[in-house]
Amino acid sequence: MTGCVVVKGGRVIGEGLHERHGARHAEAAALDDCRENNKGPRGAHLYCNLEPCAAAYPGKLTPPCAAAIVGAGIARVTVATLDPDPHVSGAGIRQLREAGIAVAVGVEAEAALLLNVPFFTAVHYGRPYVHLKIAQSLDGRIAARGGDSRWITDAAARRIVHRMRAEHDAVLVGRGTALHDDPRLTVRDVEAGARPAAPPWRVVLDSRLALPADARLASDEHAARTIVLTTGQAEPARRRELNARGVQVQVVEGASDGRLDIDAVLQALHARGIRSLLVEGGGAVYTSFLRAGRFDRLSVFVAPLLIGDGVAAVGDLGIERIAGAARLQGVATTVVNDQVVVSGYRDLGTLRQAVLPEGEAQPAVARAG
Fold this sequence. Notes:
Distance between the termini: 27 Å
Strand order of the largest sheet: 11-10-9-8-12-6-13-16-15
Shape: elongated
Number of helices: 13
Mean pLDDT: 90
Helix content: 25-40%
């Protein structure tokens, strides 16, 4: 998500944003806005939250922004973060500086990092950004002993989850959740402007391929947006039955415990163009992602319920000492009616280094005044 403003004489004379994949980049849109308003950008100051792209970027769908900025006669540029893509990172900044433009890098870097964590994660790690969402009771249960989980959280909390779905390329559950809850995993109950252009992919981890063909994920109008990841042990007849419904069944590598290998799952989804993933359960799935260390954000919705002997949100993580626990960063706590939502990130430090090299921010800001 990128935005840009052009300022001259203390006034904003142009602004733009990158509306969708393949559309004009924010810088190009802002420069066009200046011209449409009959405001000349020459000598102006351009602000953007992500490094302008350069000609070195392969497969680019829009003209390089760095060259457009130079051609427009912009005098100064302030950039919040570099682009972590190795084909781009630093090239746009270098092109601007070589043209004599004063460039400041790192202003509002933390806010810009949080804005684009999914993008930065997918580019830097070469896998989808993984957001684990857990709805649990005070005693850490996600369902009663018999598997019933409707509803631990209220309608207001569930609306937040639907907005989360709208912000991700795919929503993932395990076989148990698919069988017990028969979910739709669609985006509902959100304002029209928040709805994605296409519904998110619905992903089921099902090592035994037990999802019935009459499940809603396999039989509703979005069946073609359902991906079932399974192992080579799946019955061919069941696979054909699901394929006939439009469901995409894909075999991936299994782990030693008979479950699906999480890295293989993420690589399979990344190969399909999925860059952000919301994981909605159940407990075995949460545990697999947490044990593998393959999560980037964790959001826990805690409801004032006591369930007792129910289904635990998280199983054994193999942690022997508190020092080995994963501590969240950038934690935010929100109250939703009588529930509390705790959300944080696993590791922002590595991404900070990728989008703002050490020593870049202060000297660059000083040079730009």
